[in-house]
Structures are given as structure tokens and as C-alpha cells.
Amino acid sequence: MALRDLLRPKALSDLIGQENAKRIVRKMIEDKAPGHLLLFGESGTGKTSLALIAAREITGEQDEGMFGWGGWKHLNSSESGNKDFIAGTVTNFAQYAGLKIFIFDEAHTITRDSQTLLLNLLERTGDTFYFFCTTQPQKLIYELRTRCRKIKFEWLTPKERVELIQRASCKLGIEPPSGFIEEIHRRALGNPRAVLNALESAIEGVPIVEAVDLEMPDGSSKPRRETRSNRERQRDRITKLVQGKDSPSVRRIASQVGCSPETVQRQKERLGLKAAPRRRLSS
């Protein structure tokens, strides 16, 4: 079993990061008051995992299925997002008694005609609710988007990345490969699924730099702009710390910022500050 599947969250406490999303879902679970949800954000950030947790907790059914007393269904929209399936299967299940939740994964692949058909189902008052998970919310028609509560999923912070790696390593009974955390921070890889994939590759012997590089976003302009912006913010934080009245040590700054000591050293040199002779620094 892949590491990302082994560590797939089964409860809210298992999901690292996404505090706002968890707060909204926790309230829904506590109040037993679900609504239609649009969960959107980058691939691998936990949208489907959170939707499944919410469906199980709200309906009280751990296993997927529609029963006489309710239940939930997890649908792949590329296979189940056509008009015939929704007009038949989904509409039929929606007539069952009890609380019901439909999770549409990759919701941006639902055909436009099918989305229009879903509008009538979303409008019906009762005990049937729809969760749409997507990386491209703009491909859902406006009328459908306005009927859903929106929950955005974010990249992991440096602290959350470390927590994920440590939790995964503990699960496997190993120590993270030397230099792995530093490389994840250096490349600002914040996608949980990608971090776990990279860790698994590194454990299996793939060089760390290559393992991380294989999980980086593709060459589109948006990831490059985001990565450059992250680097600029990181440099600004380092600059403020090293130029502060009580400048911490290189290692302490690296720990606070979530980068490698070498990154701090390089920024000090750019600023013309006194730097120790070049050598490899451990974290």
C-alpha cells in the first residue's frame, strides 16, 4: 500500500493543516446540520479525505452505501457525472429515507447538462446533500457554485510539513532520511500527497533532490510565480531576523523560518553580513 493511502486521514484529528476547513466541518458534525459544500484547492491537499470524514461522521455510516435509513456515496465525476447517471441513479438514491450525502470527486468533469440537472436536486429541501471536490471550481456553473458553501484548501505551512513527515516516519518506524526535511523546505513543497510520495521515494533509495523534484508542480506559470513569491517572503523574514537587534543563530533562524541553515547563510552573504566559512550546516 502506498504511504499516502496508509496515512489517509480517517478522522478530523488525523488531517494535518486546513484548520478553517476542519472548523467548518466540525461544526456541521456537532450540529448534525450538513449543507451543500464546494471543496476546492490544489490537488492532494485533503479535499476528498475531509469530505469522506464528514460523510461518515454526519450519516453515522462507516461503509459506503445507500440504505433504507440513509447513507453516503463517493462518486468519480468522470464516470458518474453524465446526465443519464444523475437522472437515474442519483435521483433514485435521493428518494431514499434518511440523511444522504453524495460526494462528487473531480467535480469539474461533470458535464454542463448534468450540472444543470443537479440544480433541481440541490434546491430540494430535505435530507440529501452534495459535496463537490475540485481543483477547478471555475468550471462549475455559476448557479451551482452559488448554492454551495465554499471551503478552500491551502498548501501546508513549514511547521505542518514537518509534522506530516514526522508522523509518517513514526508510522513506518524510521527516521526521515538525512536532508529530506531541508530539501522539502528549500523547494517549498506544500502538497501533502506530494510530500508523502517524495518521502516514500527517498526511503526506497531515490536521491532526495530527485525525489522532491519529481513531486514539484508542473512548469505552468502559476506554480512558478507562487514559488518565487514564497522565496521572496522567506528572504524577507530571514533579513528581518538577521538584521534585528538580537540576531539569533543561523540554525535558530532556519528553524523559525522553516528553511535550511544554508539558505540563511546565503542570505547573510547577500546582505554583506559577516558569515562563517563555507561548510555544510546540519539542521
User: How big a fraction of the residues is strand?
Assistant: 5-15%
CATH topology of the largest domain: Rossmann fold
Sheet/helix structural class: alpha/beta
User: How many discrete structural domains?
Assistant: 2
Give the SSE string: HHEHEEHHEHEHEHHHHHHH
Oligomer: single chain
Helix residue percentage: 40-55%
List how many beta strands DSSP finds: 6
Shape descriptor = elongated
* CATH architecture descriptor text of the largest domain: 3-Layer(aba) Sandwich
Assigned CATH class of the largest domain: Alpha Beta
- Mind describing the biggest β-sheet? 6 strands, mixed
Low-pLDDT runs of 5+ residues are 220-226, 275-283
Order of neighbouring strands in the sheet with most strands: 2-3-4-5-1-6
Task: Count up the helices.
Answer: 14
Q: Report the span from N to C terminus.
A: 31 Å
Overall mean pLDDT score? 85
Tell me the CATH superfamily of the largest domain. Answer: P-loop containing nucleotide triphosphate hydrolases
Q: Return Rg in Å.
A: 22 Å
What would the keywords be for this entry?
single chain; 283 residues; alpha/beta; 2 domains; elongated; disordered C terminus
Describe the structure.
This protein folds into two domains: 18-153, P-loop containing nucleotide triphosphate hydrolases (Rossmann fold); 158-238, no CATH class. The longest helix is centred in the last third of the chain and has 22 residues, at 221-242. With 283 residues, the chain is of the alpha/beta class. It is built from 14 helices and six strands. It starts with a helix and ends in a 13-residue tail after the last helix. α5 runs parallel beside α6. It has a six-stranded mixed sheet. The radius of gyration is 22 Å and the shape is elongated.
